[in-house]
Amino acid sequence: MSFFGFGQSVEVEIVLSDAESRKRAEHKTEDGKKEKYFLFYDGETVSGKVSLVLKNPNKRLEHQGIKIEFIGQIELYYDRGNHHEFVSLVKDLARPGEITQSQAFDFEFTHVEKPYESYTGQNVKLRYFLRATISRRLNDVVKEMDIVVHTLSTYPELNSSIKMEVGIEDCLHIEFEYNKSKYHLKDVIVGKIYFLLVRIKIKHMEIDIIKRETTGTGPNVYHENNTIAKYEIMDGAPVRGESIPIRLFLAGYELTPTMRDINKKFSVRYYLNLVLIDEEERRYFKQQEVVLWRKGDIVRKSMSHQAAIASQRFEGTASLGEVRIPSQLSDNNSRQ
Description:
This protein is mainly beta. The protein is built from one helix and 24 strands. Belongs to the VPS26 family. Pfam families: Vps26.
């Protein structure tokens, strides 16, 4: 960069030391497009070099210092001017002086804490990036490089099934059950719906996956609901005693882990929404929150074997068992 065409022009590039071997992950940008970025996890070291290439070999580059930063920040779209930084690390690469030829500076941020997962939503963005800065009197030269951070979890010790009884008095009475309350992002939701009483002419039933993004605090709280998937589980009128199986594969949908009160700025929660539609186009629904988590690539065989056994045991169950959470099914004449 040069000022009004005078002085030295320099090109800045940030290169990771393990760029050739490090995995990349797709991540949605603010404009909705998908791009690939280098993938990191909590506690991993971030290292590499900042390369400076002078465009005019016969001219020197004067500066007030060169530095690189590792930054984790949250940006709320309704408050664009303020960036909330939860990670901010700085390495000075060169003291004030001048550069007469192209050169590179090594850097290393050791065992960097990256407490949250990268996220781009409807009203908020959480990003991690490296920023190299050449300080100059008139205009700084700045180069940024984004990375993506994934947060891994272990198999939850407590993962009970969800059993619910819902109904409208003297009209509809159903029981439904999901095999777990916590699912990893490539998991399969297995469940059953059992009709105990049917006096409403139901013509259609589906399960929706709803993502609810909550941003801000106090009076400035924004809720954004986004239907990620619609999964038809029945087309036609059910009869009393009928049992409808559910098998919903999560791997095909764009999901993130559940995020709760991230840096006191935002939350992301997921709900399974059971929707019934009668012949008069009235909609009845029941929502149930589920927790999503990201599983690492390497999983102990014993754990996956236990999960398979639990799934088989659930599928082979003849009855839904005890209903632990009675609740009313709501008529969706009002907005969901």
